Protein backbone atom coordinates (compact mmCIF):
# COMPACT_ATOMS: atom_id res chain seq x y z
CA UNK A 1 0.00 0.00 0.00
CA UNK A 2 1.44 3.37 -0.92
CA UNK A 3 1.49 6.32 1.38
CA UNK A 4 -1.15 8.02 -0.72
CA UNK A 5 -3.42 4.96 -0.56
CA UNK A 6 -3.09 4.95 3.17
CA UNK A 7 -3.89 8.67 3.43
CA UNK A 8 -6.99 8.15 1.32
CA UNK A 9 -7.95 5.23 3.47
CA UNK A 10 -7.51 7.34 6.58
CA UNK A 11 -9.80 10.04 5.23
CA UNK A 12 -12.47 7.50 4.42
CA UNK A 13 -12.04 6.09 7.88
CA UNK A 14 -12.36 9.55 9.41
CA UNK A 15 -15.58 10.15 7.52
CA UNK A 16 -17.07 6.88 8.61
CA UNK A 17 -16.10 7.41 12.20
CA UNK A 18 -17.41 10.96 12.20
CA UNK A 19 -20.71 9.71 10.94
CA UNK A 20 -20.81 6.89 13.46
CA UNK A 21 -19.96 9.24 16.30
CA UNK A 22 -22.55 11.68 15.13
CA UNK A 23 -25.10 8.91 15.16
CA UNK A 24 -23.98 7.69 18.54
CA UNK A 25 -23.87 11.11 20.09
CA UNK A 26 -26.39 13.30 18.39
CA UNK A 27 -29.13 11.58 16.59
CA UNK A 28 -29.79 8.99 19.20
CA UNK A 29 -31.32 11.85 21.16
CA UNK A 30 -33.46 13.41 18.47
CA UNK A 31 -37.14 13.66 19.29
CA UNK A 32 -37.98 11.86 16.04
CA UNK A 33 -36.44 8.63 17.34
CA UNK A 34 -38.94 5.89 18.17
CA UNK A 35 -40.27 6.08 21.68
CA UNK A 36 -39.18 2.62 22.70
CA UNK A 37 -35.59 2.57 23.81
CA UNK A 38 -34.53 -0.93 22.94
CA UNK A 39 -31.03 -2.28 23.13
CA UNK A 40 -31.02 -2.59 19.39
CA UNK A 41 -31.70 1.11 19.04
CA UNK A 42 -29.12 2.10 21.56
CA UNK A 43 -26.50 0.09 19.77
CA UNK A 44 -27.32 0.99 16.25
CA UNK A 45 -24.13 3.00 15.80
CA UNK A 46 -21.90 0.25 17.10
CA UNK A 47 -21.58 -1.75 13.89
CA UNK A 48 -20.33 1.31 12.08
CA UNK A 49 -17.86 2.03 14.85
CA UNK A 50 -16.73 -1.56 14.95
CA UNK A 51 -16.32 -1.58 11.22
CA UNK A 52 -14.27 1.56 11.41
CA UNK A 53 -12.12 0.14 14.18
CA UNK A 54 -11.59 -3.06 12.31
CA UNK A 55 -10.15 -1.11 9.44
CA UNK A 56 -7.80 0.95 11.49
CA UNK A 57 -4.28 0.48 10.12
CA UNK A 58 -2.30 -1.47 12.68
CA UNK A 59 0.41 1.15 13.26
CA UNK A 60 -2.19 3.77 14.12
CA UNK A 61 -4.24 1.55 16.27
CA UNK A 62 -4.31 2.02 19.99
CA UNK A 63 -1.48 4.39 20.49
CA UNK A 64 -3.31 4.63 23.72
CA UNK A 65 -2.00 7.24 25.96
CA UNK A 66 -2.87 9.84 28.46
CA UNK A 67 -4.49 7.53 30.92
CA UNK A 68 -3.69 5.66 34.04
CA UNK A 69 -5.50 2.65 35.22
CA UNK A 70 -7.30 3.10 38.46
CA UNK A 71 -5.43 1.51 41.24
CA UNK A 72 -7.52 -1.23 42.82
CA UNK A 73 -7.36 0.51 46.18
CA UNK A 74 -9.14 3.62 45.04
CA UNK A 75 -12.74 2.62 45.07
CA UNK A 76 -15.52 5.07 44.41
CA UNK A 77 -19.21 4.67 45.01
CA UNK A 78 -20.12 4.57 41.35
CA UNK A 79 -18.01 1.49 40.81
CA UNK A 80 -19.45 -0.48 43.66
CA UNK A 81 -21.97 -3.22 43.11
CA UNK A 82 -22.12 -6.17 40.84
CA UNK A 83 -19.13 -6.60 38.66
CA UNK A 84 -19.00 -3.04 37.42
CA UNK A 85 -21.97 -3.56 35.13
CA UNK A 86 -24.78 -1.15 34.66
CA UNK A 87 -23.02 2.20 34.86
CA UNK A 88 -25.32 5.02 33.97
CA UNK A 89 -24.54 8.32 32.40
CA UNK A 90 -26.78 11.25 33.14
CA UNK A 91 -28.05 13.77 30.71
CA UNK A 92 -27.71 17.40 31.76
CA UNK A 93 -31.05 17.31 33.50
CA UNK A 94 -29.96 14.30 35.51
CA UNK A 95 -31.90 11.58 33.70
CA UNK A 96 -30.06 8.34 33.12
CA UNK A 97 -28.82 7.59 29.65
CA UNK A 98 -27.92 4.21 28.27
CA UNK A 99 -24.41 3.11 28.97
CA UNK A 100 -22.01 3.40 26.10
CA UNK A 101 -21.06 -0.10 25.22
CA UNK A 102 -18.80 -2.15 23.09
CA UNK A 103 -16.62 0.80 22.22
CA UNK A 104 -13.60 0.51 24.43
CA UNK A 105 -11.42 -2.19 25.82
CA UNK A 106 -9.96 -2.58 29.22
CA UNK A 107 -6.58 -0.86 29.40
CA UNK A 108 -3.39 -2.66 30.10
CA UNK A 109 -2.10 -1.48 33.46
CA UNK A 110 1.21 -0.11 32.29
CA UNK A 111 0.84 2.82 30.01
CA UNK A 112 3.78 5.14 29.97
CA UNK A 113 2.92 7.17 26.89
CA UNK A 114 0.96 10.31 27.36
CA UNK A 115 -0.76 11.46 24.23
CA UNK A 116 -3.92 12.44 26.00
CA UNK A 117 -2.20 14.37 28.73
CA UNK A 118 -2.47 18.11 28.82
CA UNK A 119 0.90 19.52 27.98
CA UNK A 120 2.49 21.86 30.45
CA UNK A 121 3.94 25.14 29.52
CA UNK A 122 6.64 26.78 31.53
CA UNK A 123 5.67 28.67 34.61
CA UNK A 124 5.91 32.39 34.73
CA UNK A 125 9.31 33.74 35.41
CA UNK A 126 11.08 31.20 33.22
CA UNK A 127 12.46 33.06 30.24
CA UNK A 128 10.81 32.11 26.97
CA UNK A 129 12.36 32.51 23.59
CA UNK A 130 10.87 35.48 21.82
CA UNK A 131 8.76 34.37 18.88
CA UNK A 132 9.86 30.72 19.02
CA UNK A 133 8.58 29.86 15.57
CA UNK A 134 9.97 32.89 13.78
CA UNK A 135 11.79 32.93 10.49
CA UNK A 136 14.89 31.26 11.87
CA UNK A 137 13.01 28.40 13.40
CA UNK A 138 10.18 27.05 11.31
CA UNK A 139 9.23 24.67 14.13
CA UNK A 140 7.82 21.21 13.72
CA UNK A 141 5.61 20.34 10.73
CA UNK A 142 2.14 21.71 11.17
CA UNK A 143 -0.53 19.30 10.03
CA UNK A 144 -2.39 17.74 11.68
CA UNK A 145 -1.17 17.70 15.21
CA UNK A 146 -2.10 15.35 18.00
CA UNK A 147 -4.13 16.98 20.72
CA UNK A 148 -1.31 17.12 23.27
CA UNK A 149 1.17 18.31 20.66
CA UNK A 150 -1.24 21.05 19.60
CA UNK A 151 -1.60 22.24 23.19
CA UNK A 152 2.15 22.22 23.69
CA UNK A 153 2.67 24.11 20.44
CA UNK A 154 0.12 26.75 21.45
CA UNK A 155 1.70 27.11 24.87
CA UNK A 156 5.15 27.58 23.38
CA UNK A 157 4.09 29.83 20.50
CA UNK A 158 4.64 33.06 22.37
CA UNK A 159 6.62 34.62 25.16
CA UNK A 160 5.11 35.94 28.37
CA UNK A 161 4.02 39.54 28.06
CA UNK A 162 6.02 41.93 30.17
CA UNK A 163 3.73 44.98 30.28
CA UNK A 164 2.27 45.62 33.71
CA UNK A 165 -0.81 47.52 34.78
CA UNK A 166 -1.23 48.92 38.27
CA UNK A 167 -4.81 48.33 39.33
CA UNK A 168 -6.79 49.30 42.41
CA UNK A 169 -7.61 46.24 44.49
CA UNK A 170 -11.24 46.42 43.37
CA UNK A 171 -10.17 45.87 39.76
CA UNK A 172 -7.41 43.33 40.27
CA UNK A 173 -9.45 40.15 40.73
CA UNK A 174 -8.51 37.46 38.21
CA UNK A 175 -5.35 39.18 37.02
CA UNK A 176 -1.87 37.94 37.83
CA UNK A 177 0.72 39.51 40.15
CA UNK A 178 3.46 41.12 38.07
CA UNK A 179 5.71 41.43 41.11
CA UNK A 180 6.13 39.43 44.28
CA UNK A 181 3.79 40.53 47.04
CA UNK A 182 5.95 41.77 49.91
CA UNK A 183 4.35 42.76 53.20
CA UNK A 184 4.20 46.51 53.74
CA UNK A 185 3.66 46.01 57.46
CA UNK A 186 4.00 43.52 60.26
CA UNK A 187 0.92 41.34 60.62
CA UNK A 188 -0.61 41.76 63.04
CA UNK A 189 0.77 45.31 63.11
CA UNK A 190 0.61 45.40 66.92
CA UNK A 191 -0.06 42.94 69.75
CA UNK A 192 -3.79 42.28 69.77
CA UNK A 193 -6.30 40.31 71.73
CA UNK A 194 -7.51 37.16 69.96
CA UNK A 195 -10.65 37.02 72.10
CA UNK A 196 -13.26 39.12 73.85
CA UNK A 197 -12.46 39.04 77.56
CA UNK A 198 -9.97 40.67 79.87
CA UNK A 199 -6.38 41.67 79.47
CA UNK A 200 -4.55 40.43 82.56
CA UNK A 201 -1.29 41.48 84.19
CA UNK A 202 0.32 38.77 86.29
CA UNK A 203 -1.40 36.02 88.26
CA UNK A 204 -5.01 36.38 89.49
CA UNK A 205 -7.34 37.22 90.95
CA UNK A 206 -7.21 40.57 89.25
CA UNK A 207 -8.41 43.97 90.26
CA UNK A 208 -10.94 45.51 87.86
CA UNK A 209 -11.28 49.24 87.36
CA UNK A 210 -14.18 50.22 89.61
CA UNK A 211 -16.05 52.28 87.05
CA UNK A 212 -15.80 49.57 84.42
CA UNK A 213 -17.67 46.72 86.06
CA UNK A 214 -19.46 44.80 83.38
CA UNK A 215 -22.94 45.29 84.87
CA UNK A 216 -22.62 49.04 85.16
CA UNK A 217 -21.66 49.64 81.64
CA UNK A 218 -23.99 47.58 79.54
CA UNK A 219 -26.88 49.87 80.33
CA UNK A 220 -26.26 53.46 79.31
CA UNK A 221 -23.28 53.78 77.05
CA UNK A 222 -21.71 57.20 77.13
CA UNK A 223 -19.15 58.61 74.73
CA UNK A 224 -16.47 56.09 73.82
CA UNK A 225 -13.30 56.74 75.71
CA UNK A 226 -15.09 58.77 78.34
CA UNK A 227 -14.18 56.83 81.43
CA UNK A 228 -10.88 55.27 82.26
CA UNK A 229 -7.49 55.39 80.70
CA UNK A 230 -6.29 56.41 77.22
CA UNK A 231 -7.49 53.95 74.57
CA UNK A 232 -10.37 52.70 76.71
CA UNK A 233 -14.05 53.20 76.20
CA UNK A 234 -16.56 52.52 78.90
CA UNK A 235 -16.61 48.94 77.59
CA UNK A 236 -12.89 48.61 78.12
CA UNK A 237 -10.36 48.50 75.32
CA UNK A 238 -11.95 48.27 71.88
CA UNK A 239 -10.41 47.58 68.50
CA UNK A 240 -9.41 50.59 66.45
CA UNK A 241 -8.32 52.86 69.26
CA UNK A 242 -5.06 54.49 70.21
CA UNK A 243 -2.46 52.68 72.30
CA UNK A 244 -3.94 51.88 75.72
CA UNK A 245 -2.30 52.85 78.98
CA UNK A 246 -0.07 50.27 80.70
CA UNK A 247 -1.82 47.68 82.85
CA UNK A 248 -0.40 47.50 86.36
CA UNK A 249 0.52 44.11 87.77
CA UNK A 250 -2.47 42.36 89.34
CA UNK A 251 -4.98 44.34 87.29
CA UNK A 252 -7.36 43.38 84.52
CA UNK A 253 -9.33 45.39 81.99
CA UNK A 254 -12.10 44.43 79.56
CA UNK A 255 -10.76 44.00 76.05
CA UNK A 256 -12.36 43.23 72.70
CA UNK A 257 -11.10 40.91 69.97
CA UNK A 258 -8.65 42.79 67.78
CA UNK A 259 -8.00 45.53 70.34
CA UNK A 260 -4.46 46.57 71.19
CA UNK A 261 -2.96 44.86 74.18
CA UNK A 262 -1.95 47.29 76.94
CA UNK A 263 1.72 47.20 77.89
CA UNK A 264 2.20 44.92 80.88
CA UNK A 265 -0.41 42.37 79.73
CA UNK A 266 0.66 38.79 80.29
CA UNK A 267 -2.42 36.99 78.94
CA UNK A 268 -6.02 37.41 77.82
CA UNK A 269 -8.82 35.61 79.62
CA UNK A 270 -11.85 34.80 77.46
CA UNK A 271 -15.08 36.25 78.82
CA UNK A 272 -16.56 32.76 79.22
CA UNK A 273 -13.63 31.63 81.36
CA UNK A 274 -13.69 34.45 83.91
CA UNK A 275 -16.08 35.72 86.58
CA UNK A 276 -16.51 39.35 87.53
CA UNK A 277 -17.70 38.93 91.09
CA UNK A 278 -19.14 42.45 91.17
CA UNK A 279 -16.94 43.56 94.02
CA UNK A 280 -14.12 44.77 91.79
CA UNK A 281 -12.39 41.40 91.39
CA UNK A 282 -12.01 39.07 88.43
CA UNK A 283 -11.49 35.32 88.91
CA UNK A 284 -10.44 32.74 86.33
CA UNK A 285 -12.55 29.56 86.20
CA UNK A 286 -10.58 26.73 87.86
CA UNK A 287 -11.04 24.59 84.75
CA UNK A 288 -9.25 27.23 82.66
CA UNK A 289 -6.00 28.15 84.32
CA UNK A 290 -4.32 31.07 82.63
CA UNK A 291 -1.26 30.34 80.52
CA UNK A 292 1.30 33.02 79.87
CA UNK A 293 0.60 34.73 76.53
CA UNK A 294 -2.68 32.96 75.92
CA UNK A 295 -5.02 34.54 73.41
CA UNK A 296 -2.57 37.29 72.57
CA UNK A 297 -1.62 37.63 68.91
CA UNK A 298 1.82 39.03 68.94
CA UNK A 299 2.93 41.60 66.44
CA UNK A 300 4.48 40.03 63.32
CA UNK A 301 3.09 36.56 64.08
CA UNK A 302 1.96 36.14 60.45
CA UNK A 303 4.64 38.20 58.73
CA UNK A 304 7.20 40.92 59.23
CA UNK A 305 7.28 44.01 57.06
CA UNK A 306 9.14 43.12 53.87
CA UNK A 307 8.40 39.40 54.10
CA UNK A 308 7.79 37.70 50.76
CA UNK A 309 4.13 36.67 50.85
CA UNK A 310 3.44 35.49 47.29
CA UNK A 311 5.53 35.12 44.13
CA UNK A 312 5.04 37.01 40.89
CA UNK A 313 2.71 35.08 38.61
CA UNK A 314 0.21 34.28 41.35
CA UNK A 315 -3.38 34.61 40.10
CA UNK A 316 -5.20 37.24 42.12
CA UNK A 317 -8.01 35.45 43.91
CA UNK A 318 -10.37 36.96 46.48
CA UNK A 319 -8.01 35.62 49.17
CA UNK A 320 -5.03 37.35 47.56
CA UNK A 321 -7.00 40.61 47.50
CA UNK A 322 -7.67 40.18 51.22
CA UNK A 323 -4.04 39.44 52.03
CA UNK A 324 -2.87 42.40 49.94
CA UNK A 325 -5.26 44.73 51.74
CA UNK A 326 -4.31 43.37 55.17
CA UNK A 327 -0.65 43.88 54.42
CA UNK A 328 -1.10 47.46 53.36
CA UNK A 329 -1.73 47.55 49.61
CA UNK A 330 -4.22 49.88 47.88
CA UNK A 331 -3.26 48.73 44.40
CA UNK A 332 -1.34 45.90 42.78
CA UNK A 333 1.02 45.65 39.84
CA UNK A 334 -0.55 43.09 37.51
CA UNK A 335 0.53 41.49 34.27
CA UNK A 336 -1.35 43.14 31.44
CA UNK A 337 -3.66 40.47 30.11
CA UNK A 338 -3.33 39.63 26.44
CA UNK A 339 -5.73 41.78 24.40
CA UNK A 340 -8.07 39.78 22.28
CA UNK A 341 -10.47 40.61 19.46
CA UNK A 342 -13.23 38.09 18.80
CA UNK A 343 -14.50 37.88 15.22
CA UNK A 344 -17.67 35.88 14.70
CA UNK A 345 -18.11 34.72 11.12
CA UNK A 346 -21.36 33.53 9.60
CA UNK A 347 -24.12 35.17 7.60
CA UNK A 348 -26.58 32.66 8.98
CA UNK A 349 -26.35 34.06 12.48
CA UNK A 350 -29.06 36.02 14.25
CA UNK A 351 -28.32 38.14 17.28
CA UNK A 352 -31.80 38.05 18.77
CA UNK A 353 -35.07 36.18 18.78
CA UNK A 354 -35.72 32.61 17.73
CA UNK A 355 -34.14 30.86 14.78
CA UNK A 356 -36.09 31.63 11.61
CA UNK A 357 -35.85 31.46 7.84
CA UNK A 358 -32.99 28.99 7.90
CA UNK A 359 -30.97 31.18 10.21
CA UNK A 360 -29.80 30.30 13.73
CA UNK A 361 -28.82 32.27 16.79
CA UNK A 362 -25.18 33.18 17.29
CA UNK A 363 -24.21 31.03 20.26
CA UNK A 364 -20.53 31.94 20.18
CA UNK A 365 -20.70 35.73 20.39
CA UNK A 366 -22.14 35.63 23.91
CA UNK A 367 -19.91 32.73 24.97
CA UNK A 368 -16.39 33.22 23.66
CA UNK A 369 -15.63 36.68 25.11
CA UNK A 370 -16.55 35.80 28.68
CA UNK A 371 -14.73 32.48 28.37
CA UNK A 372 -11.59 34.21 27.13
CA UNK A 373 -11.84 36.69 29.96
CA UNK A 374 -11.96 33.79 32.38
CA UNK A 375 -8.73 32.60 30.75
CA UNK A 376 -7.08 35.91 31.56
CA UNK A 377 -7.66 37.82 28.32
CA UNK A 378 -8.71 41.41 28.04
CA UNK A 379 -11.41 41.20 25.41
CA UNK A 380 -11.40 44.36 23.34
CA UNK A 381 -14.46 43.61 21.24
CA UNK A 382 -16.65 40.87 19.86
CA UNK A 383 -17.59 41.68 16.27
CA UNK A 384 -19.84 39.83 13.87
CA UNK A 385 -18.63 39.82 10.32
CA UNK A 386 -20.28 39.28 6.99
CA UNK A 387 -19.16 36.08 5.27
CA UNK A 388 -17.02 37.81 2.69
CA UNK A 389 -13.31 37.39 2.11
CA UNK A 390 -12.79 41.15 2.28
CA UNK A 391 -14.67 41.60 5.54
CA UNK A 392 -12.66 38.86 7.22
CA UNK A 393 -9.40 40.11 5.75
CA UNK A 394 -10.09 43.71 6.77
CA UNK A 395 -11.10 42.79 10.32
CA UNK A 396 -7.98 40.68 10.91
CA UNK A 397 -5.69 43.17 9.21
CA UNK A 398 -7.08 46.09 11.21
CA UNK A 399 -6.98 44.39 14.58
CA UNK A 400 -4.30 45.60 16.95
CA UNK A 401 -5.01 42.85 19.49
CA UNK A 402 -2.35 40.45 20.71
CA UNK A 403 -4.62 37.58 19.78
CA UNK A 404 -7.42 37.47 17.23
CA UNK A 405 -9.95 34.70 17.84
CA UNK A 406 -12.20 33.84 14.92
CA UNK A 407 -15.19 31.52 15.01
CA UNK A 408 -16.36 29.60 11.96
CA UNK A 409 -14.91 29.59 8.50
CA UNK A 410 -12.07 27.19 9.31
CA UNK A 411 -13.17 24.34 7.04
CA UNK A 412 -13.08 24.14 3.28
CA UNK A 413 -16.55 25.39 2.39
CA UNK A 414 -17.19 28.07 -0.24
CA UNK A 415 -17.46 30.80 2.39
CA UNK A 416 -14.72 29.59 4.73
CA UNK A 417 -12.45 32.59 4.68
CA UNK A 418 -9.96 32.03 7.47
CA UNK A 419 -7.29 30.12 5.55
CA UNK A 420 -7.42 32.46 2.52
CA UNK A 421 -7.18 35.46 4.85
CA UNK A 422 -4.12 34.02 6.57
CA UNK A 423 -2.49 33.36 3.20
CA UNK A 424 -3.28 36.89 2.06
CA UNK A 425 -1.73 38.34 5.20
CA UNK A 426 1.36 36.16 4.97
CA UNK A 427 0.61 34.61 8.34
CA UNK A 428 2.46 31.52 9.44
CA UNK A 429 0.33 28.53 10.34
CA UNK A 430 1.59 26.88 13.52
CA UNK A 431 -1.27 24.43 13.94
CA UNK A 432 -3.51 23.57 11.02
CA UNK A 433 -5.92 20.94 12.21
CA UNK A 434 -5.75 18.86 15.36
CA UNK A 435 -6.48 15.19 15.89
CA UNK A 436 -9.28 15.93 18.32
CA UNK A 437 -13.06 15.51 18.12
CA UNK A 438 -14.89 17.79 18.08
CA UNK A 439 -12.94 20.67 16.70
CA UNK A 440 -10.45 19.09 14.33
CA UNK A 441 -10.33 22.03 11.87
CA UNK A 442 -9.07 24.42 14.58
CA UNK A 443 -5.93 26.36 13.76
CA UNK A 444 -3.29 28.65 15.21
CA UNK A 445 -1.31 31.14 13.17
CA UNK A 446 1.31 33.75 13.84
CA UNK A 447 0.17 37.03 12.27
CA UNK A 448 3.29 38.95 13.22
CA UNK A 449 5.90 38.69 15.95
CA UNK A 450 3.97 38.53 19.21
CA UNK A 451 0.57 38.48 17.47
CA UNK A 452 -1.47 35.35 16.88
CA UNK A 453 -4.76 34.17 15.47
CA UNK A 454 -6.71 31.26 16.90
CA UNK A 455 -9.28 29.92 14.44
CA UNK A 456 -12.11 28.17 16.25
CA UNK A 457 -14.44 25.95 14.23
CA UNK A 458 -18.01 27.17 13.92
CA UNK A 459 -19.72 24.20 15.53
CA UNK A 460 -20.21 25.45 19.09
CA UNK A 461 -18.73 22.51 21.03
CA UNK A 462 -15.92 22.36 18.49
CA UNK A 463 -15.24 26.01 19.32
CA UNK A 464 -15.02 25.13 23.02
CA UNK A 465 -12.59 22.37 22.12
CA UNK A 466 -10.47 24.93 20.26
CA UNK A 467 -10.62 27.31 23.20
CA UNK A 468 -9.21 24.71 25.58
CA UNK A 469 -6.78 23.18 23.10
CA UNK A 470 -5.23 26.30 21.56
CA UNK A 471 -6.49 29.52 23.19
CA UNK A 472 -5.99 28.43 26.79
CA UNK A 473 -2.29 27.48 26.53
CA UNK A 474 -1.50 30.50 24.36
CA UNK A 475 -3.23 32.94 26.72
CA UNK A 476 -1.71 31.25 29.74
CA UNK A 477 1.79 31.76 28.38
CA UNK A 478 1.13 35.33 27.25
CA UNK A 479 -0.40 36.19 30.61
CA UNK A 480 2.42 34.53 32.60
CA UNK A 481 -0.08 32.30 34.37
CA UNK A 482 0.82 29.01 35.99
CA UNK A 483 -0.54 25.84 34.44
CA UNK A 484 -3.10 24.01 36.49
CA UNK A 485 -2.31 20.58 37.80
CA UNK A 486 -3.81 17.86 35.63
CA UNK A 487 -6.86 16.35 37.20
CA UNK A 488 -7.60 12.67 36.67
CA UNK A 489 -10.87 11.03 37.53
CA UNK A 490 -12.41 7.61 37.05
CA UNK A 491 -15.12 7.57 34.43
CA UNK A 492 -18.57 6.65 35.67
CA UNK A 493 -19.46 5.12 32.30
CA UNK A 494 -17.72 3.89 29.19
CA UNK A 495 -17.16 6.42 26.41
CA UNK A 496 -17.02 5.73 22.69
CA UNK A 497 -13.71 6.68 21.18
CA UNK A 498 -12.41 7.80 17.85
CA UNK A 499 -9.89 5.28 16.52
CA UNK A 500 -7.10 7.78 16.01
CA UNK A 501 -8.21 11.11 17.47
CA UNK A 502 -8.59 12.28 21.05
CA UNK A 503 -12.15 13.09 22.07
CA UNK A 504 -13.19 15.81 24.50
CA UNK A 505 -16.43 14.87 26.22
CA UNK A 506 -18.42 16.97 28.71
CA UNK A 507 -18.62 15.29 32.11
CA UNK A 508 -20.34 16.04 35.40
CA UNK A 509 -18.59 15.30 38.68
CA UNK A 510 -20.59 12.76 40.66
CA UNK A 511 -19.28 11.11 43.83
CA UNK A 512 -15.67 11.45 42.79
CA UNK A 513 -16.20 10.15 39.26
CA UNK A 514 -16.63 11.86 35.91
CA UNK A 515 -20.00 11.08 34.42
CA UNK A 516 -20.09 11.50 30.64
CA UNK A 517 -22.98 13.68 29.56
CA UNK A 518 -25.29 13.26 26.63
CA UNK A 519 -25.71 15.96 24.02
CA UNK A 520 -22.00 16.08 23.36
CA UNK A 521 -22.16 16.38 19.57
CA UNK A 522 -20.05 19.09 17.89
CA UNK A 523 -23.05 21.35 17.29
CA UNK A 524 -24.45 20.97 20.81
CA UNK A 525 -23.97 23.03 23.93
CA UNK A 526 -26.49 21.25 26.10
CA UNK A 527 -23.90 18.87 27.55
CA UNK A 528 -21.15 21.40 28.19
CA UNK A 529 -23.60 23.84 29.77
CA UNK A 530 -24.35 21.20 32.42
CA UNK A 531 -20.76 20.01 32.73
CA UNK A 532 -18.09 20.37 35.37
CA UNK A 533 -15.26 19.41 33.05
CA UNK A 534 -14.23 18.01 29.70
CA UNK A 535 -12.87 14.48 29.81
CA UNK A 536 -9.97 13.71 27.52
CA UNK A 537 -10.81 10.38 25.89
CA UNK A 538 -7.83 8.85 24.13
CA UNK A 539 -8.06 7.15 20.76
CA UNK A 540 -9.99 3.91 21.10
CA UNK A 541 -12.30 5.10 23.83
CA UNK A 542 -12.47 4.34 27.50
CA UNK A 543 -14.18 1.91 29.81
CA UNK A 544 -16.07 2.69 32.91
CA UNK A 545 -13.64 3.13 35.85
CA UNK A 546 -10.75 4.04 33.56
CA UNK A 547 -9.02 7.17 34.78
CA UNK A 548 -9.35 10.05 32.37
CA UNK A 549 -7.73 13.45 32.40
CA UNK A 550 -10.41 16.06 32.97
CA UNK A 551 -9.98 19.64 31.81
CA UNK A 552 -11.32 22.26 34.16
CA UNK A 553 -13.96 24.69 33.04
CA UNK A 554 -13.97 28.32 34.16
CA UNK A 555 -16.73 27.58 36.64
CA UNK A 556 -15.27 24.36 38.01
CA UNK A 557 -11.83 25.31 39.35
CA UNK A 558 -8.37 24.87 37.94
CA UNK A 559 -6.91 27.13 35.32
CA UNK A 560 -9.12 29.82 34.04
CA UNK A 561 -11.26 29.53 37.10
CA UNK A 562 -10.83 33.08 38.24
CA UNK A 563 -12.71 35.48 36.03
CA UNK A 564 -10.96 38.72 35.27
CA UNK A 565 -12.82 41.81 36.38
CA UNK A 566 -13.61 43.75 33.22
CA UNK A 567 -12.23 47.26 33.73
CA UNK A 568 -15.23 49.57 33.66
CA UNK A 569 -15.70 51.22 30.30
CA UNK A 570 -12.87 49.48 28.51
CA UNK A 571 -14.58 46.28 27.41
CA UNK A 572 -16.91 46.84 24.55
CA UNK A 573 -18.87 44.27 22.71
CA UNK A 574 -19.61 45.89 19.42
CA UNK A 575 -21.94 43.09 18.52
CA UNK A 576 -24.15 44.07 21.38
CA UNK A 577 -24.04 40.85 23.32
CA UNK A 578 -23.72 41.04 27.05
CA UNK A 579 -20.16 40.65 28.22
CA UNK A 580 -21.05 39.33 31.59
CA UNK A 581 -18.84 37.08 33.56
CA UNK A 582 -20.30 33.59 33.83
CA UNK A 583 -18.74 32.84 37.16
CA UNK A 584 -18.42 36.12 38.97
CA UNK A 585 -17.42 36.00 42.59
CA UNK A 586 -19.78 37.42 45.14
CA UNK A 587 -18.83 40.76 46.62
CA UNK A 588 -16.22 40.46 49.32
CA UNK A 589 -17.84 40.07 52.70
CA UNK A 590 -16.64 40.27 56.22
CA UNK A 591 -15.06 37.33 57.86
CA UNK A 592 -14.72 36.41 61.48
CA UNK A 593 -11.46 36.25 63.24
CA UNK A 594 -10.09 32.82 63.95
CA UNK A 595 -12.94 31.52 66.04
CA UNK A 596 -12.10 27.91 65.53
CA UNK A 597 -13.62 26.77 68.80
CA UNK A 598 -10.40 25.02 69.73
CA UNK A 599 -9.54 26.03 73.29
CA UNK A 600 -5.81 26.18 72.65
CA UNK A 601 -3.85 29.24 73.60
CA UNK A 602 -2.46 30.92 70.47
CA UNK A 603 0.83 31.62 72.13
CA UNK A 604 2.72 28.90 73.92
CA UNK A 605 2.53 29.01 77.68
N1 LIG B 1 -15.81 19.01 3.72
C1 LIG B 1 -15.70 19.15 5.02
N2 LIG B 1 -16.63 19.83 5.68
C2 LIG B 1 -16.53 19.97 7.00
C3 LIG B 1 -15.47 19.40 7.68
C4 LIG B 1 -14.49 18.70 6.98
O1 LIG B 1 -13.52 18.19 7.53
N3 LIG B 1 -14.64 18.63 5.64
N4 LIG B 1 -15.40 19.50 9.02
C5 LIG B 1 -16.66 19.72 9.72
C6 LIG B 1 -16.37 20.05 11.05
S1 LIG B 1 -15.89 18.77 12.02
C7 LIG B 1 -16.54 21.30 11.55
S2 LIG B 1 -16.28 21.60 13.22
C8 LIG B 1 -16.97 22.39 10.74
C9 LIG B 1 -16.09 23.58 10.90
O2 LIG B 1 -16.57 24.51 10.06
P1 LIG B 1 -16.21 26.01 10.06
O3 LIG B 1 -15.21 26.32 11.11
O4 LIG B 1 -15.85 26.37 8.69
O5 LIG B 1 -17.53 26.65 10.53
P2 LIG B 1 -18.82 27.03 9.68
O6 LIG B 1 -18.88 26.22 8.46
O7 LIG B 1 -18.85 28.47 9.59
O8 LIG B 1 -19.94 26.54 10.68
C10 LIG B 1 -20.06 25.21 11.03
C11 LIG B 1 -21.38 25.03 11.75
O9 LIG B 1 -21.41 25.81 12.92
C12 LIG B 1 -22.47 26.74 12.89
N5 LIG B 1 -22.00 27.98 13.49
C13 LIG B 1 -21.01 28.75 13.01
N6 LIG B 1 -20.88 29.83 13.80
C14 LIG B 1 -21.79 29.73 14.77
C15 LIG B 1 -22.15 30.55 15.86
N7 LIG B 1 -21.50 31.69 16.11
N8 LIG B 1 -23.17 30.16 16.66
C16 LIG B 1 -23.83 29.00 16.40
N9 LIG B 1 -23.52 28.17 15.39
C17 LIG B 1 -22.52 28.54 14.57
C18 LIG B 1 -22.79 26.92 11.45
O10 LIG B 1 -24.09 27.37 11.28
C19 LIG B 1 -22.56 25.53 10.93
O11 LIG B 1 -23.67 24.73 11.23
O12 LIG B 1 -16.94 22.05 9.37
C20 LIG B 1 -17.51 20.79 9.07
N10 LIG B 1 -17.50 20.66 7.66
O1 LIG C 1 -16.13 17.49 14.76
MO1 LIG C 1 -16.03 19.15 14.13
O2 LIG C 1 -14.43 19.01 14.44
O3 LIG C 1 -17.62 19.23 14.43
O4 LIG C 1 -15.84 19.91 15.45
Characterization of the model:
By secondary structure, this protein is of the alpha+beta class. The chain is 18% helix and 21% strand. It has eleven helices and 32 strands. Strands 1, 4, 25, 28, 29, 30, 31 and 32 form an eight-stranded mixed β-sheet that branches. A six-stranded mixed β-sheet has the order 22-19-23-27-26-24, sandwiched between helices. Strands 12-8-13 form a three-stranded antiparallel β-sheet, with no helix packed on it. A hairpin with a 2-residue loop joins strand 29 and strand 30. 43% of the residues are buried. The model is unreliable at 1-10, 16-135, 212-227, 559-563 and 565-605 (pLDDT under 50). The structure holds ligand LQZAQKY5 and molybdate ion. Ligand LQZAQKY5 binds at residues 344-346, 348-349, 360, 362-364, 407-413, 416, 438, 440-441, 457-460, 462, 522. Ligand LQZAQKY5 binds next to strand 19 and helix 10. Keywords: Magnesium, Metal-binding, Molybdenum, Molybdenum cofactor biosynthesis, Transferase.
